[in-house]
């Protein structure tokens, strides 16, 4: 048949387009070692829009599942010291569970990560009122923050597959000024690192503080609490808070306190130190640490080691601070993957960001973004093992 070769290549092209997974697989390469990105339907949102689930895979077998609803990292499968792949995040079984009740598991946070005191700030002489959703304060962007919106997704195939997510928050959305165009790119690197690049521009002066709120438990499958995890934080100072977790303005040296993680320290060893007011206010760790090292170059912010699995996670960031939260508010009421109830301290979060409530603290590094400027930050979560 004269047209057979053309027909065959047309058939191949069509299957590539419809299968939504067509990374360049070489012959003899097994499927599970193939790097690339797949897309499947994830479900329908209450407003009728549909969300997708993307699976990014590198040649080492690590996978990251991400949905464009809230930019949520739904799962991260990484190997333990014996090469066993398990999920190291808390997550839910379905899109509807994420919509119903999600304590920010895996989600992108914006327009402002963490708290703004009393939901008020003044910019260029004008006071803005934001939604109050946490102990009289504004938390994580408000009622419908970036964790609850549908992002426009563009998959980028390759050895280091990426997912570009775009969202434009409208002028006045959640009370903030300015149309803010945000782009977040997740890249799964060959070296078992998940890189997150954040970018934003605005058409009016505004405030921005973007982060990701993944809950980690390196045991895999969140089998137990994270009190035996060993954490190191490259930070000499703590952003002290009041009872409602709003910064007092004081940057407190950590040396000799329960907040000193300069050397690798077991999370549970001082977490209930009732003599420490900051521990009392946080109900454990729920604070920002000021990262050592100046400027916005990538620096090692945190290292987490879990002894039974041998898993290690290193966090690098261009941000000036990191919120270390030990899942103190988890109480078993959120039933996650495979029907598993996540209890108090079953995970830890390492949210790289600017200081909480910066718009009300002129002495803190600024979070103001003006027209013509580009907000740009990068954070990398890298996984490895040690015996
Ligand atoms: C942040 C906050 C915590 C808590 C969690 C989400 O880490 O600092 O107090 O609100 O988010 O539950």
Characterize the structure shown:
- The protein has 387 residues and is mainly beta.
- It has a single domain (36-385), classed as Beta-galactosidase, Chain A, domain 5 (Distorted Sandwich), CATH 2.70.98.
- The chain is built from 3 helices and 28 strands.
- Strands 11-12-13-14-28-24-23-18-21 form a 9-stranded antiparallel beta sheet, with no helix packed on it.
- Strand 13 and strand 14 (193-202) form a beta hairpin.
- Bound molecules: alpha-D-galactopyranose.
- Alpha-D-galactopyranose binds next to strand 25 and strand 26.
List the helices and strands and how they pair.
Layout: H1 4-19, E1 36-44, E2 50-57, E3 63-67, E4 73-79, E5 85-87, H2 95-100, E6 108-109, E7 115-116, E8 120-123, E9 126-129, E10 138-139, E11 152-156, E12 162-169, E13 180-188, E14 193-202, E15 206-207, E16 211-212, E17 215-216, E18 230-233, E19 237-241, E20 247-253, E21 265-266, H3 277-282, E22 286-290, E23 299-306, E24 311-317, E25 321-325, E26 348-353, E27 368-369, E28 375-385
Antiparallel strand pairs: 1-2, 2-3, 3-4, 4-5, 6-16, 7-10, 8-9, 11-12, 12-13, 13-14, 14-28, 15-27, 17-26, 18-21, 18-23, 19-20, 19-22, 22-25, 23-24, 24-28, 25-26
